[in-house]
Design brief:
This protein is 39% helix and 17% strand. It is of the alpha/beta class. It is globular, with a radius of gyration of 21 Å.
């Protein structure tokens, strides 16, 4: 067996012939052998966009209430350790190696993907860390995602948009059905999509889930510097604005509060903890401001919905200077849709190819930008790092850089700024 985290991650990358192989049969078999039946409450969070932010709100509020929280998210940006947190701290290399070794010993001849292996290892770790509650972020879809091998006490779908069409279908109804697969009979099912697909509602009703929809069973309303929230369980006035930027974050915060309201009998949370958690929640790569000259905003936006939210944030925060974009994406994403959503907020494009499987070339990105009719200059660069350095050269007083298009793009800029190298795959 490998004896370092880097060795384990390299081993996991070659363990299964496919990076993504949706289905629960294999992972369920290994879960059973490991005896992974957690006694603590689980909250599962799925959705096209907003999963990471909603998980961050849940973690921060529960921690402020005094609970020992296990948090499993993906993908990571700089270190695999980011994916597995207990009480706000990343799991160290030794703990992850022990968890991986336990999964390896149990799996026998069963082939697991990188994500499946990591999901089981995270739960193994949580069960040995005496957590009070675990928050699990779905990797892809929901119904057949490895996280769904665990039965949640409450499941949240943040929203449904077009993404991962090769796996989930090419329309919101197909994708909505896949997302709704994390709901369970007779258990709270939260949906923060203002216009949920009919397939999601039908599935929740068919299995007898206790569905709460934003705008119906629960709601949020901005009040300038504060906001109000209401659900069948509570009404809260003048809540502090979430620390995470963007008007859309109110929906994510409201979804987190709805989940906590639904679980209040077993996990009571006070008003002070809610306020503290809303102020404290942070998540890397979501409109993350890196101060300096020039300042840089890093965002993992990689589909039209998240790109529209990023454009809105950039517009709200726009000053007198220019916005220089460091732009790189995967080729199987909606490059044209992302480019179109952001063209009105970018004054100069620095586009780069991603040297990873599925990475789009700089030429393909430039072609997509040209087709949007953008009038901003477009420069081709050899890498994200080169694009970022070029943006720094071009930036004048009052200008800013926005780096977006992929987790890989965000990770490259964050690593460059931090002077570190990425630890393990982003898969």
């Amino acid at each position: 067996m490998p004896d370092t985290l880097a060795g384990w991650l390299s081993y996991l990358e070659g363990l299964h012939p496919k990076t993504i192989d949706l289905g629960l049969e294999r992972v369920a078999a290994v879960k059973s052998r490991l005896g992974l039946e957690p006694a603590f409450p689980l909250v599962t969070v799925g959705g096209t966009n907003g999963k990471g932010s909603t998980c961050a709100f849940l973690e921060a509020i529960l921690a402020a209430a005094g609970y020992r929280v296990g948090l499993y998210t993906s993908p990571h940006l700089l270190r695999y350790n980011e994916r597995v947190r207990v009480a706000g701290r990343e799991a160290d290399d030794g703990a992850l190696c022990r968890a991986f070794a336990a999964v390896e010993a149990a799996r026998g001849e069963t082939a697991l993907t990188y994500f499946e292996f990591g999901t089981l290892a995270a739960m193994w770790h949580f069960m040995r860390q005496d957590v009070d509650v675990a928050v699990l972020e779905v990797g892809l879809g929901g119904r057949l995602d490895a996280v769904n091998v665990f039965d949640p006490d409450c499941a949240v779908v943040t929203g449904v948009a077009i993404d991962h069409t090769d796996y989930l279908g090419d329309d919101r109804e197909s994708i909505g059905f896949e997302k709704a697969g994390i709901y369970r009979a007779n258990r709270p099912a939260i949906c923060a999509d203002p216009e949920p697909p009919a397939s999601l509602v039908r599935h929740a009703e068919a299995i007898g889930a206790k569905l709460w929809r934003i705008g119906r069973e629960f709601s949020c309303q901005s009040g300038g510097g504060t906001w109000d929230y209401a659900s069948p369980a509570a009404r809260r006035k003048s809540l502090p604005r979430p620390a995470l930027a963007g008007a859309f974050q109110l929906n994510n915060a409201a979804a987190a509060l709805a989940a906590l309201d639904a679980l209040a009998k077993g996990l009571p949370v006070g008003e002070e903890a809610i306020a503290d958690g809303l102020r404290a929640a942070r998540v890397a790569g979501r409109f993350q401001l890196l101060p300096g000259k020039p300042p840089c905003i890093v965002d993992v936006a990689h589909n039209p919905q998240s790109a529209t939210a990023l454009a809105d944030n950039l517009g709200r925060e726009r000053g007198a200077g220019r916005t220089l974009a460091v732009f790189a994406m995967l080729g199987d994403k909606d490059v044209a849709g992302v480019a179109a959503a952001l063209k009105g907020e970018v004054d100069h494009w620095l586009v780069a190819g991603l040297d990873v499987p599925r990475g789009a070339s700089a030429e393909a990105l430039a072609e997509a930008l040209t087709k949007t009719g953008t009038r901003a200059p477009v420069e081709l660069c050899g890498s994200v790092a080169e694009a970022y350095r070029r943006a720094c050269e071009l930036a004048g007083e009052g200008d800013r850089i926005a780096a977006f298009g992929s987790f890989y793009t965000a990770a490259a800029v964050l690593a460059l700024r931090a002077g570190v190298t990425e630890h393990g795959s982003i898969s």
